[in-house]
Write a structure and sequence with these properties.
This protein is α+β, with helices and mostly antiparallel strands and 363 residues long. It folds into three domains: 10-133, PAS domain (Beta-Lactamase, 2-Layer Sandwich), CATH 3.30.450.20; 139-207, Orthogonal Bundle (Helix Hairpins), CATH 1.10.287; 211-363, Heat Shock Protein 90. Helices cover 40% and strands 22% of the residues. The chain contains ten helices and 13 strands. Helix 8 runs parallel beside helix 9.
């Protein structure tokens, strides 16, 4: 086999001047290839070099930028529009920068920089860095958020407008007596009312985030839900029990939102468990909440789908298929997870499991 010796790179064997020229050529090639703007400033933070794609990123020609400071071209901000100062002696990454180009259009950039110090001294000599245009990305994100907000507002408005006539209709049906036709109509109105409530709750919790200083007692949350739903369960010939391991289990989060999530799970369990059986709501020190029923359970292939909008374990059931999607949204907002497994005695075990960091301990 032919013996291979080390490759002789000109940059390793040439004189310093040649090596410097080669390094500059490589830098120029790289700056032409990358889409980000490459820049450098002097110690007074004035630009002494910008790559040829300055017009694509900033809207300015390189000659229009050189000799100017960033603050003469635009302003750094914190993402919320408040002006931000850049420490000239510390590296920074993806600092938000807004500039108005010569045609009067606002451009949003993400700028990163690294301070440069002398090779023989610690004297600050300037910055080197990159900048990329994210105007179109932010505009598309803003349009998406606005569209989603309009959709949420529409759903909430429609649901709100339907609640009152449905309540009036239900009251009139209650005055018609107990014949089979009236009973069937009452059931249909109850289904429609539940669907409207799901639509309102989905619109309410779609963008929900708990306050940073909120805390929730999981035992109290589950007891409140059981008290609310006990009359419904008794009417349907079911019952609800709440079991709590040890003392109070406290997590960071909103009690109101978690009540809604647990309520949806317990309502779901009451509908699917057979008559004469018990729905068990168990609070453990993991910390976690388990809601167990004695129904048919949820098939493995359906377990992911049921937490999506309009997904249902039983497609013949009533409701809009939003109840478990609301649970998932609330759980996600608490940095927790929800899943379903087979119960120890059959049926389904819906579990909301909080990360340990979310547990704040007894207050």
């Amino acid at each position: 086999m032919r013996k291979r010796g080390p490759r002789s790179w000109p940059s390793l064997t040439a004189d310093p001047k040649t090596r410097a020229g080669e390094a500059l050529k490589r830098l120029e090639d790289i700056t032409r290839l990358v889409s980000d703007l490459v820049w450098e400033t002097d110690k007074d933070l004035r630009l002494i070099y910008v790559s040829d794609n300055a017009h694509e990123v900033f809207g300015f020609l390189p000659v229009q930028m050189e000799g100017k400071a960033f603050t003469e071209l635009g302003r750094f901000h914190d993402g919320a529009g408040n002006e931000r100062e850049i420490d000239p002696y510390r590296p920074f990454r993806d600092a938000a920068f807004r500039v108005v180009d010569p045609e009067g259009r606002e451009r949003d950039l993400l700028v990163s920089g690294l301070p440069i110090f002398g090779t023989d001294t610690d004297e600050f000599t300037g910055f080197r860095g990159t900048a990329r245009d994210v105007t179109d990305i932010l505009r598309a994100e803003r349009m998406r958020r606005e569209q989603e907000e309009r959709q949420r507002a529409f759903v909430a408005d429609v649901a709100h407008e339907l609640r009152t006539p449905l309540a009036v209709f239900r009251t009139k049906l209650d005055n018609l007596g107990e014949d089979a036709t009236s009973a069937a109509l009452r059931k249909d109105v109850d289904v429609m009312t539940r669907m409207v409530s799901q639509m309102l709750n989905f619109a309410r919790y779609e963008v929900f985030q708990p306050e940073a200083n909120e805390s929730a007692d999981l035992g109290r949350v589950c007891a409140a839900v059981a008290a609310q739903l006990a009359p419904i369960a008794v009417r349907e010939e079911r019952s609800i029990e709440v079991l709590v391991d040890g003392g109070p289990v406290i997590v960071r989060g909103s009690e109101t939102a978690l009540e809604q999530a647990v309520r949806n799970l317990v309502e779901n369990a009451v509908r699917h468990t057979p008559k004469g059986t018990i729905v068990t709501v168990s609070v453990t020190e993991e910390p976690a909440i388990h809601v167990l029923d004695h129904g048919k359970g949820v098939s493995v292939e359906r377990r992911r789908q049921i937490f999506q909008r309009f997904g249902r374990a039983d497609r013949r059931g009533d409701g809009a298929g939003l109840g478990l999607a609301i649970v998932k949204r609330i759980v996600d907002a608490h940095s927790a997870e929800v899943n379903v497994a087979d119960g120890p005695d059959g049926g389904a075990d819906f579990c909301i499991r909080f990360v340990r960091d979310a547990a704040s301990g007894p207050l």
